Amino acid sequence: MSGSTLSLHRPFKDRSFGLVRKFLRINWLFVMCVCALAGIGYVALYSAAGGSTTPFANSQLIRFCTALIMMLAIAMVDIRIIAKAAWPSYVLGIVLLVVVMKFGHTGLGAKRWMSVGGVEIQPSELMKLFLVLALAAYFHKASHERIGNVFFLLPAVAAIALPVGLILKEPNLGTAVITAAIGATVMLGAGVRWWKFAIVIAVIAIAAPVLYHHLHDYQRARIITFLNPGSDPLGAGYNIIQSKIALGSGGFSGQGFLHGTQNQLNFLPEKQTDFVFTIIAEEFGFIGSIATLALLFMIVVIALYTAMRSENQFGRLVALGIATNFFLYCFVNLSMVMGLIPVGGVPLPLISYGGSALTAVMLGFGVLMSVHVHRDAEFAVDEF
Amino acid sequence: MKRDTKKQPGFTKRALLIGTAQAAIFGAIGTRLYKLQVDEHSKYQLLAQHNSISERLTAPERGLITDRFGVVLAGNQQHWRALFMAAQAPDPASVLDNFAKLVPLDDDERARIAADISGRPGYIPVLLKDYLEWPEMAALEVNTPNLPGVIVEVGTSRVYPFGDGFAHPVGYVARPDQAEAKANNVLALPGMRVGRSGAEAANDDVLRGSPGYVQTETNVHGEVVRQVAHDNGIPGQTVALSLDTGLQNLAVQALGTQAGAAVVLDALTGEILAMASNPGFDPGLFDKGIPADVWKGWMADPMHPLQNKAIAGLFAPGSTFKPTVALAALKYGSLTPEKILTCTGSLQLGDHVFWCDNHIAHGSINVTTALQVSCDVFFYQVALGVGVDRIAEMAHTLGIGVDLQLDIPHAAPGSVPTIAWAAARGVHWAPGNTVVQGIGQGYTQVTPMALATMIARVATGIEVGPHMARRIDGNLQDGSDVGDWPALDVDDRHLAVIRQALFEVVNTPSGTAYASRLDLPNVQMAGKTGTAQVHDNTAAEKQKNFNDATMPWADRPNGLFVAFAPYAAPRYACAVIVEHGLFGAQVAAPIAKQLMTYALTNDPAGRDTPLTTKVSDAGMPL
How distant is the Cα of A370 from the closest Cα of chain B, in angstroms? Predict the structure, then answer.
């Protein structure tokens, strides 16, 4: 990177980076993909309401527009400010998790939600982003040698274990696993040796039966019905069966907009949230679902590209974590909808109805765009 | 130190590896989607339809039964009823509770409904309540949201516009019993009826039709969203009977309050033009349910209203059997038309005396006169001469004591004894048995339908068989056309002798039925009276000659009459029995006269050849 070329490659020290320039440096292809997915979500929610903009589609649109503005705003926040806010936000996230455990609403047998100024938030969603930021900040200043040191890694492992444990207590098995996976991915990106992961995985594999013993009944039921969905067709397995029927009956080109019987006749409860993908798949068929899948993958690809393109370690790890978070959202939700993994309250980001996941994801995308905008910034450890 | 973060070795490699893994997983998801949505589409499509489309069968409308001129004898009337598709209700028990709050159901009905729900496939709705009243209808409509799976629809019930008088020939329908419903799902459909007697039973398969279906789309709560498709099925076919409503009504009226039966046949085809059996009953009750007191009344009635006496009532033929005896004797030569036998008023056989009617001595007479005056002693001798087996053989030829292959269920063949028949029953056959056989008493049991068949065959020389289904779905049935029947295996000359004698019975002053000769110009009836005792009379009764109206009703003899007309070109045959009505000439012959007069005046057979063929008083064509 030579400083003789355009301002794009100027050293980060130049603080005169104007807002307009930053705005233009945002990855607009990415923004278009995000908006396209939100558009698909709008159509799906319109259909979920039986061909009506209420109660889902319009309110979700308003949420999305708000979140989009928030994302664009965060995109222009200096990456170093974000880096400095990493640990404080992590602490905030932990506090919120504790608060929600003590005072949150119970939904579907789990304490996950809390209300802040009338806005429902799910601290575990925010926690994933905050953990990524904290880990990225932690490894930002780490040299190759230090990363090889097991004792250097222990605080990072603790930083992952604390929120994962709290989320498990909610209890929210799905999000806990995702959170742990994101933390692990960030550590992997930071250069932690492969064999260390192998040891951790081996330990988990041995510990799994013991953990299973301590799972809540409904969590075990999920695992059992996942293994044999036909065993309880109107209980927990019901969702999986109906979801697969919705996908399969869509066929290649779909039943047609507003003509999916599974959707329109309410065979799937709460389809506008976790099972929103079934609406797209049933009414627009394989074409619709593969197009959605492609857009989701585009987001992941651009996020990973952003990670590789970033000149600073913090930005790389943050982008990697955010890409992984989004990827895991998609993977868990789609696998669940197709009956590949047990049902767990994981929405399809940008498409599912609901504010909490959308806000968290868009917040992450704001940070991601900030990484992208400040991709050429090189800042030293001491600049923190 | 400051710049070492820039060249983090392996980050790009690791990021690419992670990216590749994620891409592979996305690829796997896409592949899985392809398998689900494209490869296994048809399987899930079916499941989705099964989820949302519920199909139920609907009962076809039962075919009409009409008389030969299209007058409806059995039709359908619409009413409202409530059905239940239990599979569409998330909680059937609570739906039934809600329903019972609006439309009362007694315990029996609830038990039946529960049995029906558990015992039937999901596409067969269960009847909740038939014949809904308007307020019930309205209440059900208002409460539809609380009644998922409940369907209010128009059903049909069977109606019989002519009621009692036609109950025997037309028959009735009833709900299928549990065993039938189990054996045939279609019969489990609410509104399906099974013919139980008469034409309803005989033609049940063509009257029934094929069920249709309604496909409705229901949501997850079982509420019907819309009707997807429907098929009315195939309604039952119309069955036109050979009956003439006017003639049937007349027969019922003529019998009046008396127990008995009257049959009028088209003598050339065997078509049944009238088949009255008195008393009748209300056939519509079987569809709706028979009140207990009505049922008890029927069972206790000595006149047996539920029995179709025309085809299932077994009676001694009395003197109406004499033409058969004569024909048997003529065939085997023990009798000739000219042969003279002497009646002294009684016949001594061993230590038993067989009296002639009223102990009258008819003197020396031939067969013609013997039939004309109905001399018993003459036929005692004829019977002894020809033998019981040959009488039975002739009776069978003429349609007596054989299965007539009627297209009406529950017909009895009757019986004419033979030596072997008696031996099989441990009866010692004495000559005296043969003697009473000569006058149609003793073991001979006939139905009015058999007598009508006999007289039709004697009249036409054709082996006609009685039958009632004339047209099914407009197609004329076999046997309904002249020429469909073979010639009778009886010598025409012998038949002519008998016809001549029967002509004289009605048309000569000394004939037993002279009082019932027709008042029509240019056309005459021939016939034979009969008065049959119903049991072995006691000595005291014999002294009274069993003609006393002071006897208990059930002990009085049956009055019979068989006839055909016109004499010269027979077209109609008729048999009438008035149970315990005393003399056939007095009670049965006048009814036959009315029926023949109607038939000859209105000519329901409607042939091209003229009816009027005047013959001389001696029975010779003019």
Answer: 18
Q: Locate tokens 């098995």: which residue?
A: A173
Q: Which residue in B316, B264, B343 sits closest to B595, CA to CA?
A: B264
Q: Under a CB-based contact definition with an 8 Å cutoff, are residues B189 and B57 in contact?
A: yes
Which residue among B5, B6, B45 sits closest to A251, beta carbon to beta carbon? B45
Q: CB of A316 within 8 Å of any CB in chain B?
A: yes
Q: Which residues of B touch A378 (CB under 8 A)?
A: 3, 5-6
Instruction: Name residues 28-67 of chain A within 8 A of B (Cβ).
Output: none
Cα dihedral B287, B292, B294, B300 in deg (nearest 10): 130
Total Cβ atoms within 10 A of residue B482: 15
> What mean pLDDT comes out for the span B340-357?
88
Which chain B residue lies closest to A182 (C-alpha atoms)? B18
- For B512, half-sphere exposure in the C-beta direction (CA atoms, 13 angstrom radius) is 31
Residue A335: list chain B partners with CB under 8 A: 29
B5 → chain A, closest CA residue = A313
Residues of B with Cβ-Cβ distance to A285 under 8 angstroms: 37
Could you tell me which residues come within 8 angstroms of residue A222 by beta carbon, excluding any fewer than 6 positions away? Answer: A173, A236, A342, A343, A344
Asked if B225 has any chain A CB less than 8 Å from its own CB, the reply is: yes
Strands B65-66 and B239-241: parallel
Q: How far apart are CA A298 and CA A29, in angstroms?
A: 9
Q: Which of B12, B37, B41, B215 has the highest number of chain A CBs within 10 A, making it the mutation to test binding with A?
A: B37
- Start-to-end CA span in chain B (Å): 148
Q: Which of residues 163-192 of A touch B (CB under 8 A)?
A: 185, 188-189, 191
Look-up of token digits 């018993």:
B376
Antiparallel, parallel or unpaired: β B352-355 and B363-365 = unpaired
Per DSSP, the three-state class of B167 is helix
Do residue A308 and residue B4 have CB atoms under 8 angstroms apart?
no
Instruction: Please choose, from the candidates B373, B354, B353, the residue with its C-alpha nearest in 3D space to the C-alpha of residue B363.
Output: B373
DSSP symbol at B270: -
State pLDDT tens for residues B541-561: 555 555 566 778 888 899 999
Cα–Cα nearest to B412, from B283, B481, B286, B315:
B315
Q: Could you report the per-residue pLDDT of B388-421, keeping only the tens digit for each?
A: 999 999 999 999 999 999 999 999 999 999 999 9
For B281-321, how does the pLDDT look when each residue is reduced to its tens digit (9 = 90+)?
999 888 877 888 999 999 999 999 999 999 999 999 999 99
Q: Any idea what DSSP says for residue B157? A: E
| C-alpha span between A78 and B183 (Å, rounded) | 82
CB A188 within 8 A of CB B14: yes
Flag whether residue A383 sits within 8 Å of chain B, measured between CB atoms. no
Question: DSSP readout, B493-543?
Answer: HHHHHHHHHHHHHHHSTTSTTGGG---STT---EEEEEEE-SSPPPHHHHH
* A97 Cβ contact partners less than 8 Å away, ≥ 6 residues apart: A123, A124, A127, A163, A166, A167
Dihedral sign (CA A137, A141, A147, A151): negative
* Ramachandran angles phi, psi of B300, nearest 5°: -85, -15
Count of CB pairs separated by less than 8 Å, A with B: 147
Looking at beta carbons, which residues of chain B come within 8 Å of A191? Answer: 8-11, 14
- Could you please report the per-residue DSSP string of B77-130? EEEEEEEE-GGG-SSHHHHHHHHHHHS---HHHHHHHHHHHHHS-TTS-EEEES
Burial of A162 (0-12, 13-18, 19+ CB in 10 A): middle
DSSP assignment of B202-243: HTHHHHH-B-EEEEEEE-TT--EEEEEEEE--BPPPPEEES-
Q: What is the pTM of this model?
A: 0.66
- Mean pLDDT throughout B156-168? 91
Q: How far apart are the first and last CA of chain A?
A: 23
Please tell me the distance from the alpha carbon of residue A348 to that of residue A277, in angstroms, as a whole number.
7
